[in-house]
Amino acid sequence: MMKTLIKYEFLKVLRKKSTLIAIAVSLLITAVFFALPITQFQIYNQDGVLRGLEGIAYEKEQYANISVPLTNEYVTEAIQDVQALFENPDNIGYDGNEEFLIEDAYWNGIAPRENLLGLIARNYAAPNESVGYNALTGLDVSGGADFYQARQDKIETILNNPSNELSEAEKDFWRNMNSNVEEPFQYGYFGGWEIIISAFELFMFAILAICIVIAPVFAGEYQAGTDAVILSGKYGKTKLITAKIIAALIFGVLAFTLHILVAFGIPLVAFGADGWNLPLQINGTTVPYPLTFLEGTFINLAVIYMVLIAMIGLTLFLSAKMKSPYLVLIVMVPVLFIPMFLTPNGTTGIYNLLVLLTPYQSLVPRFSSYLSYQFGSVILDAFAMRGLVYAILTLILLPLARISFKKHQVA
Amino acid sequence: MELQLQNLRRQYGTKCAVDNVSIHFKPGVYGLLGANGAGKTTLMRMICGVLKPTSGSILLDGKTMQELGERYYTHLGYMPQDFGFYPDFTAREFMLYMAAVKGLDKKSAKARTEELLKLVNLCDVADKKIKSYSGGMKQRLGIAQAELNDPDILILDEPTAGLDPKERVRFRNIISDFAKDKIVILSTHIVSDVSYISDIILMMKQGKIVLQGPMETITNSIQGKVWEVMVDERKAAQYSRNLHVVNLHHEGNLVRLRIVDDAAPAPDASIVEPSLEDLFLYHFSEDVQNERSDDDENLD
User: Fold this and answer.
1) Facing residue for B88 by CB, picked from A16, A228, A235
2) Same structural domain for residues B9 and B158?
3) Nearest-neighbour CA in chain A from B47: distance (Å)
4) Considering the entire predicted model, what is its pTM?
5) Same domain for B76 and B145?
6) Cβ distance B17 to B10 under 8 Å?
7) So what's the ipTM on this one?
8) pLDDT tens digits, residue range A267-295?
9) What pLDDT, in 10s, does the model give residues B265-286?
10) H-helix or E-strand spanning residue A333
């Protein structure tokens, strides 16, 4: 019985023209956004610029030589190599602000591993300071680079920064998490994953499209006048509501997964899946999470699915409460998109902590932010907190949707 | 099977849509007559459990709707007024879906769907989307879904509204086929529909049942009060203003009036056999007049 009800409720959603239009448009938007980094990709070498897939292939070739563990010895050598290049005045250019390497010194010594050198340089810089390879000239590596000690020092600086307002317990929480990060970091190519982890918020369009599609699940019955006939059926106030909720959830999860496949498929086909097993720290050394790119992606995806399910719950609740699907969307659009304009100005204070829990902000992983929530002795990182908040919302909203439809009066 | 409404009342703000209605239904066809806004739909919605009464109770074989829970709905078939269908479903899909909502197992659902689609003559178009159906086809599908669970109580709210005369006759016949050993409550403001198929007439006005009785005897209340008289046009206008004129027919320079009144409206007036329509118009002439003037205003 339940299977039949779910099947027909699912068909109701699927058969509507508006469903196909909403999902097709959001898939197109997702595909275009995730394809942009490929079409706009460009890399320079001595011969000029290489664009698109050709450029990506060239960059991957360059990375083949630097797919190494970032041991202190390797880092020391890398820094010394850069410093040696800067010792020859013929290699140096000056733009009135800072010195940089030119010609062969740059193309042979820097360009093939500029991202790696930048990563190393930033490891020694102050938090939030943006520096390039030329910052390596000022480092004293006569006694070895001590790359990982520098990382620890930088993390301590972040933890002890008064503006971060972290309690001692929170600091210990992050220190403990950091202690699980494996050293030395294995470096390598992670172009595809870099795009994926920096573009999660684009899935907001998919969530909106799904909310548009499921907004009529209950309100559409009121609008069409079918509420009277289904509510007077034996299971109209019981199993049918469950079937409607399950069908909406199945549709939402499947449609969202389709978006994920398109969104991830495009960069992973173009850039390759290389780097899936590399640590997140090679994209920012102070990342506290002991995760690979694949693990980080999965964890954030799990949070995004929780946000999606809670938003489906909210849409269903509003749908059961309101007279028309349009009214549901009048509420849902601001809920989903206003937080886009609420830029957090840090990771502390009630305002920021709440803004960072809004649906839009919850899609952004913020791997490098030491964002934690403390409740007495319990400390939750951003992922756990978001997961918990959206799980609670789901557990509240779905039963509320159920009760609202059950109590609906056909008047 | 007995359905009892006890002091049923539904209030919207200060307006009482259904006012203290008590009826005892036994198997038979009940024609619920009333002008638009009389409270028929509200009463039916309450019987179907989709609208809570402000007070009063509904009992099926002595048990309240609340006591019976889901079981109450297994006895019920409801065809609401102007209810929408799922335009992208075929008739067969819609029937199977409704069968599942009504709790029929797969095998019974399939068999009953085919049986009913045949009965309402929709077999040939059963796999066509409902959005391609005419009004009459949708009404037939509406009653077919109401019959899916072979209910003991069949509630039909304005089932013939919007149908052409041929479809109405067809529809009345379908209802008669379904009505055997059931409580059928049929609301309409089309008098001829109920007069053909109803056993008992219930007249509803301003939320109250103002008259009820068997079809054969209900007109007794105006027996000896229905008159026919031939008058000139000036007199006809005068009578229309002052008396319950239920029909008016021009015959040359004269007008044949049908009047319901306690006394003879004119010395040459003759008593005629009362009809249900006379009774309806006698009770609802004001409402019908109001409706007409509302319509006129809308047209203006």
Assistant:
1) A16
2) yes
3) 10
4) 0.89
5) yes
6) yes
7) 0.85
8) 999 999 999 999 999 999 999 999 999 99
9) 888 888 998 888 888 887 776 5
10) helix A325-337
